[in-house]
């Protein structure tokens, strides 16, 4: 371990830009900072020796080049992909500084390519045609399916041809509302093949949320299925879509075509709600189309997809990703963060409705010709051993999930894990929220039998791919730390005034320069893009996360510092939940905060003031929760409704959320100064009502 320790030491303080590179030069030459060995979990020498990045020095070399010569670094990688036409002189042009003009980011401008071609045709030409692209495991054990790269290309082309036949053209939006069937990645790839912009809506969102997104991006076609079974429950997705489409039509935003996949295992055709002329069964039309479809070549900066995500205020934001940089970035981060080998079987438990499913179920892995497992069901059905049953069945070697699942399985007990061999596992991954050290250790020791490194990947919908992530095999890990920045990423921790802090510190996590996978705008609202991400700390991209850096240069993410909460790895804006609550006729005002939750990471805690004269009741509590379910989705349902005769506000009327967070977590002795409140007595009232 001695040499490993030297490696870690040599990486100390690495990631803060140009200064860091000088520092790196100094420390590699022998200067070292002390480190506590008991913090560290070492990759085995066997793992490191076969790893793509086998040592901190190798990382250091590549990282240094990526910072000093980003154009050269990323051009070399981009050249491994197929470009109909190479990009122009300038590999990257960016303005991160609002004070100097509009924020803009461009990578590989002038390059002409297609990401679907690079995922499928290019890999088939390279000899992977008969390799399994997707394994599908159904909700019910025993139901499964698979597609090779050849077969996948055929299916994608048929759907692409269908979409063309109904008038979908380059630049048109297509909304996809599907569960984890193989048809979901197929639909994404079919869109990108023809230059259409997909917007996947997680199949847990309500009709209202779908309608909101449709109204914003105005798709020609919506793709869905009649129903899905998750665990023992049947969810009738088509009914939800139907309600959304009816609302959209009434609001002057009709959708012409609703392509519906008949998911026979969950529901029969006859009982599906249907609107003739608009709705059409996938199985009735798509298989009739040819299995060859010409690629629509697009500019590197043409849009690839829109994905709506929650912010601290207002309605969801349409995060827009473009083609070339996203392609290069997701492929590269996937390869290095999971130490990907062609023999791997890869399973990411995320749904394609979230960014993780875009970048690390569909695009990143398929750009690497990986075999990807897709699981339709719930991870604890029929029991808590299901994940490991699947791991053994398919010999999964890379398993990527969220801390919330780790914690819930940990609570159910080791016996469910130990029943299965899991010897195929090689690399584990975590995403979505900070992983607490105890869950990390359980994941590492019990699931991975203390031999599989964990890639705790920090990133966001906006970033397209990993920004801070371990490279397994490169260096020792610290449970709970996402370790070091990926190639080309220059993090900066800044203080309240926006001054960068060096060395061991904590503050707000920002990024100094662009990386290829960065989002380019918020759809239809570039001003909001600039205000939300680039104005708080001019000159930087502000992530919204708090972070600290330890003496060895490891990064520790501490959670959101804005009004966004992370519930079971799902990102929810407190403002959205509040606006759903106040739409209830008996709710006068609502304030929502996150509160620590043993399994979910954060729970949703809502303070609700009722309309004058309305008494609180259990029934009312239920109908308030129901309104959130129907406006956003079940995953956003408040865990607690706290009756609030009044809310703590400043004299200027601003709700003091700091105080609400303390009340929510019952930390009454940490309320701080309440004397500046307009009505200080509300605090005691709230405390008295805590358990009513
Ligand atoms: C949080 C999910 C700590 C963070 C990919 C971020 C994390 C938000 C991690 C983005 C991690 C994600 N450690 N926190 N490894 N990964 N987060 O857009 O607060 O759904 O800002 O993207 O999740 O959530 P989003």
From TrEMBL:
Q: Which UniProt keywords are present, listed alphabetically?
A: ATP-binding, Ligase, Nucleotide-binding
An example GO BP is:
acetyl-CoA biosynthetic process from acetate
Give the InterPro entries listed for this entry. Answer: Ac_CoA_lig, ACAS_N, AMP-bd_C, AMP-bd_C_sf, AMP-binding_CS, AMP-dep_synth/lig_dom, ANL_N_sf
PROSITE patterns annotated for this entry? AMP_BINDING (PS00455)
The protein's matches in Pfam families, at most eight in alphabetical order, are given as:
ACAS_N, AMP-binding, AMP-binding_C
What is an example of a GO molecular function annotated in this UniProt entry? acetate-CoA ligase activity
Supply the EC number(s).
Answer: 6.2.1.1
- What is the uppermost EC class here? ligase
Q: Which residues form the AMP-dependent synthetase/ligase domain?
A: 126-514
Domain Acetyl-coenzyme A synthetase N-terminal stretches: 59-119
Start and end of every AMP-binding enzyme C-terminal domain?
A: 576-654
The UniProt entry's sequence similarity note says:
Belongs to the ATP-dependent AMP-binding enzyme family.
Instruction: Return the protein name.
Output: acetate--CoA ligase
């Amino acid at each position: 371990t001695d040499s490993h320790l030297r490696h870690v030491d040599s990486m100390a303080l690495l990631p803060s830009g140009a200064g860091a590179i000088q520092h790196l030069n100094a420390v590699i030459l022998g200067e070292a900072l002390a480190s506590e060995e008991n913090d560290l979990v070492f990759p085995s020498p066997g793992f490191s020796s076969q790893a793509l990045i086998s040592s901190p020095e190798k990382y250091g070399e590549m990282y240094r080049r990526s910072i000093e010569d980003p154009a050269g670094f990323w051009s070399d990688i981009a050249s491994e992909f197929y470009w109909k036409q190479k990009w122009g002189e300038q590999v990257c042009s960016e303005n991160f500084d609002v004070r100097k003009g509009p924020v803009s980011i461009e990578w590989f401008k002038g390059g002409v390519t297609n990401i679907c071609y690079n995922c499928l045709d290019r890999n088939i030409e390279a000899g992977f045609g008969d390799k399994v692209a997707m394994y599908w495991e159904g909700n019910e054990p025993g139901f499964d399916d698979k597609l090779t790269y050849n077969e996948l290309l055929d299916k994608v082309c048929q759907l692409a041809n269908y979409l063309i036949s109904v008038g979908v053209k380059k630049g048109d939006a297509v909304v996809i509302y599907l569960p984890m069937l193989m048809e979901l990645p197929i639909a994404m790839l079919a869109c990108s093949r023809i230059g259409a912009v997909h917007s996947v809506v997680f199949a847990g969102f309500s009709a209202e949320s779908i309608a909101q997104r449709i109204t914003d991006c105005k798709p020609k076609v919506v793709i869905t299925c009649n129903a899905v079974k998750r665990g023992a429950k049947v969810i009738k997705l088509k009914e939800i879509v139907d309600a959304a489409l009816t609302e959209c039509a009434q609001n002057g935003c009709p959708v012409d075509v609703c392509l519906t996949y008949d998911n026979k295992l969950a529901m029969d055709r006859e009982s599906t709600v249907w609107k003739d002329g608009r709705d059409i069964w996938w199985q009735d039309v798509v298989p009739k189309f040819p299995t060859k479809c010409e690629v629509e070549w697009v500019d590197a900066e043409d849009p690839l997809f829109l994905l709506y995500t929650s912010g601290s205020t207002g309605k969801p934001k349409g995060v827009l990703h473009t083609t070339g940089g996203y392609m290069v970035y997701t492929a590269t981060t996937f390869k290095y963060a999971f130490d990907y080998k062609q023999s791997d079987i890869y399973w990411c438990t995320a749904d394609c409705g979230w960014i993780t499913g875009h970048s690390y179920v569909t695009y990143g892995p398929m750009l690497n010709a990986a075999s990807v497992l897709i699981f339709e069901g719930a991870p604890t059905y029929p029991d808590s051993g299901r994940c490991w049953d699947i791991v053994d069945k398919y010999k999964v070697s890379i398993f990527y999930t969220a801390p919330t699942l780790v914690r819930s399985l940990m609570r159910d007990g080791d016996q469910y894990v130990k029943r299965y061999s899991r010897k195929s596992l090689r690399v584990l991954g975590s995403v979505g929220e900070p992983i607490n050290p105890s869950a990390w250790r359980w994941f590492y020791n019990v699931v991975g039998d203390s031999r599989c490194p964990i890639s705790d990947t920090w990133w966001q919908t906006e970033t397209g791919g990993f920004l801070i992530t371990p490279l397994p095999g490169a260096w020792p890990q610290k449970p709970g730390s996402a370790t070091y920045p990926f190639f080309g990423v220059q993090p900066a921790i800044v203080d309240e005034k926006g001054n960068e802090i060096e060395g061991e510190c904590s503050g707000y996590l920002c990024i100094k320069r662009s990386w290829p996978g960065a989002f380019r705008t918020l759809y239809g609202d570039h001003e909001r893009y600039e205000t939300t991400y680039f104005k708080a700390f001019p000159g930087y991209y502000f992530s919204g996360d708090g972070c600290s850096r330890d003496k060895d240069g490891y990064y520790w993410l501490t959670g959101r510092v804005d009004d966004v909460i992370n519930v079971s790895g799902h990102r929810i804006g407190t403002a959205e939940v509040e606006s759903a609550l106040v739409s209830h006729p008996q709710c006068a005002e609502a304030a929502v905060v996150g509160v620590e939750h043993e399994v979910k990471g954060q729970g949703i805690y809502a303070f609700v003031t009722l309309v004058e004269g309305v008494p609180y009741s259990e029934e009312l509590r239920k109908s308030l929760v129901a309104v959130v379910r129907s406006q956003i989705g079940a995953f956003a349902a408040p865990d607690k409704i706290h009756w609030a005769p009044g809310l703590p506000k400043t004299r200027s009327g601003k709700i003091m959320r700091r105080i609400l967070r303390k009340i929510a977590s019952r930390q009454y002795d940490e309320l701080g100064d309440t004397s500046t409140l307009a009505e200080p007595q509300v605090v005691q009232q709230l405390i008295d009502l805590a358990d009513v």
